[in-house]
Amino acid sequence: MSNPSSGFQPRPFRLASPFTGIDATGEACRQNNWTFATTNAFETSEMCCRYLTQVLGRAVTPTDIMACGPENFEDSEIAFYGAPCQHVSAQGLRGGVEDEARFAPCMKSLEMCKVLDSRGKLLAVVLENSRRIRDN
Fold first, then answer.
1. Mean pLDDT by 10 residues, the chain (136 residues)
2. Contact partners, residue 32, CB within 8 Å, separation at least 6
3. Which residues pair with 37 in a beta bridge?
4. Which of 30, 60, 74, 91 could form a disulfide with 39 if both were Cys (CB 3.0 to 4.6 A apart)?
């Protein structure tokens, strides 16, 4: 059953979430009772991986998206990711897109989306807009 406040019930889908963290996108889907499966859960934090293993019901091990090739990308219909904001945040010294070490994972996620799209499965990409990202 869908969340009555949203009035929207998508068909079952696979959700690519490359910067998974504590699975905020998955939690939003669960709260709306949407049928989905999280794919491409690339997370380097061991603590987050332990939590994701419990929430997703499958083993999630620390994986750096920068070390993954196209063969590691699972097919997905929707890709959602919050671009790492360090490259535009005050804490990240606002290095912008020139700060390649911090911006590269965002570009790697876009590469993942291109691979998924070339397979003909990807229907939508949602990029969370970090504050100041449009200024870069």
1. 55 78 82 88 87 91 88 89 57 56 74 89 76 53
2. 2, 3, 6, 8
3. 14
4. 74
